[in-house]
Amino acid sequence: MERKVGMKTLVAYGMGDMYGGGAFMIVGMLFLFYLTEVVGLSPALAGMVFGIGKVWDAVSDPLMGYLSDRTRSRFGRRRVYFLAGIVPIALSFIILWLPLKTESQALLFLYYSFAYVVFATVFTMVMIPYSALAAELSPDYEVRNRLSGARLLFSGFSSLLAATVPKIIIDSSSGPPSAGYVTMSVVFGIFFALPWIITFFGTWEDERAAEESYSQNFIKEFFSIFKNRSFKIHILMYVCAYSAIDFLMALFTYYLTYYLRRDGIYSIAMGTLMLVQLVMIAVYVKIANTKGKRFAYQMGMSIWLVGMLLTLTLSSTSPLAVICLVCAVIGSGTAAAVYIPYSILPNVIDVDELMTGSQRSGVYSGALTLMRKLVQGALVMPIIGFFLQLVGFVSHAEQTSQVLTRFFIFFIGGPALLIIAGFIFASRFQLSPKNSTMLTAELERLRSGGKLEDASDEMKQVGELLTGQEWKLNKWQ
Q1: How far apart are CA 297 and CA 461, in angstroms?
Q2: Distance (Å, rounded) from C-alpha 472 to C-alpha 358?
Q3: CA–CA separation, 41 and 30 (whole Å)
Q4: Which of 258, 311, 351, 366 has the most CB atoms lying inside 10 A of its own CB?
C-alpha cells in the first residue's frame, strides 16, 4: 500500500536541502572572493580551484548515483548516506575556510584545491541519494511538485540565511578577516549537518525499487540515460538556469563592492532577493500544477531577464529602496530557475522507467549533480576568474572606468544569454501535467503485469514524444 506524503514528510524531506541550497550559496558567493581578497590567491588560480574539483566530480557524481541504486543496507539504499554524512558535512565545510599562512601561490592552490575536492565529495555522497529519493516517495504529479516545493522552500530559507548571516558573522569579527570566515564555517557546518537526522527518520524508501536488477556496466548505464529525450531537454534547462545563477551570485559581491561602491548594503540587497525568491517558490508550485512546468520556467526566466536589464538604471547614488526593488524583481524570476529543474527530475525518471523497465533514480540524480558542479566549477567560476584578471581587475584597489564598464557588461550579459537559451530549450519540453498523468497511469499498468502492446494509441504517441524512441523498442517487452 502506498504511504501517504503528509506535512511531516514534506518537512522532513525538505530539510535535507538546507545543506544543498545554503552550502552552495556560501561557496558560490564568498569562496572566490575569500581566495582572492583574504587568502591572496591570484584570480586565475582561484578560478582553477573550482575546476580541479570538477575533474574528480566527473567520476564521483555518476559513480555515486550508480552505487546508490545498488546499495543494500538495513537503513536502505539512499537514507544510509544521510547518517554517514552528518560529521563529514560539517568538517568538509570548515576546512574550506581555514587560513593557510604562506605566501606561496603553489601551496595555497594545492591546499584549497584539496579542500574543495573533499567538500565536493561529501556533497556528492549525500545529495545524490537525497535527490533520487523524491521519485520513490510518491508517483503522483502534484505530490511530487509539493515535495520539490518543500525541498526548495527549505533550500531557499537556507540560501536566505547563507546570503545574509555569513557576511554579518565575518564583518563582526574583531580579529583578522580570516577569523570571521572560520567562525562562520563552524556555525554553518553544524547548521548544515544536523537536519539530516530529521530527514533520515522522517522519510522512507520504495522497497520494490530496491529489488530491481541493473546493468553491471557502470559507464554503459550512465551514458544510456542520454537516450531519454525528456532528460536531454531537462539537462539543458537546468544548466542554463543554474549557470546563470552562478554568474549572478559569484559576481554580485564584486558588483556591490566595486561597481556600485555600496558593499555595506550587501546583506539588505541579497536578503531582499532571497526573501522574494523564497516566497515566490510557493507561487511557482501552484503555477506548475495548473499551467505546467514549462510555462512556470519560461515565466520566471522572463521576469529574471527584466530584472537584470533593470540594473542598467542603478548607480552608486541610487536610493536603497530602488536597489532592493530591482533585487526583488530578480528574485521573483530566480525562484522558477531554482525550483522547476529539480521538480522535473522525478518526471524524467518516470520516462526512463517507461524506456527501460527499471527505476534508476540514483543514476539520474548523479548526472544532474554532476552537471551542476561541472558547469559551475569547470566552466563558470574559471571563466569569471580569468575574466577578472583579463580586464585588469586589481584586488583592494580603485578600478578604472574601463575595467568597470567591461565588468558590468559581463555581469549582465553572462546571465542574460543563459536565460534566453534556457527559455528556448524549454519550448521543446513536453512533460505537461496531462502527459505526466498519462505516463504515471501507464507505468502502474505495466508494473501490474500489463503488456506494452495493449497501450492506447494516444499513450504510444505520448511515449514516443517523451522518450524520443519508437514504442516497440521499449524494454518492457
Answers
A1: 25
A2: 17
A3: 14
A4: 366
How far apart (Å, rounded) are the C-alpha atoms in residues 330 and 408? 16
What's the whole-number mean pLDDT along residues 399-423? 92
* Section 219-238 average pLDDT: 89
Residue linked to cell 567591461 = 406
* Short-list 364, 375, 372, 389, CA closest to 338: 372
Cell numbers for 367: 548526472
Which carries the bigger pLDDT value, residue 438 or residue 220?
Answer: 438
Global confidence as pTM: 0.76
Instruction: Please report the pLDDT score of residue 216 as a whole number.
Output: 59
- Ordered domains of the chain (ranges, CATH): 7-198+218-431 (1.20.1250.20)
Q: What angle do CA 465, 471, 474 make, to 5 degrees?
A: 115
Q: Of 349, 358, 154, 155, give the one whose Cα is nearest residue 234.
A: 349
**Three-class secondary structure assignment of 224-235:** HHHHCHHHHHHH
Could you count the other beta carbons within 10 Å of the beta carbon of residue 411?
22
Average pLDDT score, the chain: 87
The Cβ of residue 3 has, within 10 Å, a number of other Cβ atoms equal to 11
Q: How confident is the model at residue 296 (pLDDT cuts 50, 70, 90)?
A: very high
Distances (CA, A) of 163 to 243, 274, 305, 376, 425: 18, 7, 21, 18, 29
How many other CB atoms sit within 10 Å of the CB of residue 93? 28
Q: Which three cell numbers, joined as nine digits, stand for 471?
A: 514504442
CA-only gyration radius of the chain, Å: 22
> Percent of the chain, pLDDT > 70?
95
Exposed / middle / buried, residue 453 (Cβ in 10 Å: 0-12, 13-18, 19+): exposed
The answer to whether 20 and 338 are in contact (CB under 8 A) is: no
What is the grid cell recorded at 443? Answer: 507505468
Q: Which of 230, 160, 149 has its CA nearest to residue 188?
A: 160
CA distance 301 to 312: 18
CA–CA dist 63, 269 (Å, integer): 39
Question: In the predicted model, what is the mean pLDDT of residues 163-188?
Answer: 88
Per-residue pLDDT band at 377 (split at 50, 70, 90) = low
